[in-house]
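>> received
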Amino acid sequence: MKTICLFLLSATLITIYSCKASHQKTGNVQVPVQNLTIDQSLVKVFDTSHKIDTTYIVKDVITISLTFYNTCQSDTFELVTNGKFTKSNPPMTAVYLKRKSTNSKCVETIHKELKFDLSKLRYPLANSIILNLDEQVKVLYSY
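>> returned
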């Protein structure tokens, strides 16, 4: 009886572990971290082709989950800023998502996760800043 119980327990643990491992292999797609673009001549970028679903920052990397409308799978995206800060505590700067498309006739709605390195935005003599993302979402970046 003990042997059967041990066998069933071992089989159950092996099954749980193998299912978890196989799920991680197929579901864990690495999203590349892109560089932030600083364009000092940038005024504002109003792009209404997307909606920000969630955003969070880990170390120097911001992860943004979005829904894009009238978009192609081949479109690329960049995070841009003019690099100017408000005189507030903590300082605040505006950042915008900018879509680059080679085809203007796309009609797909897609969900994407994008990652950007924020380390270029560190403000001197401060340990955090507020990112005003597309004038929709404010996120605290602490470093």
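>> The longest strand covers residues 61-71.
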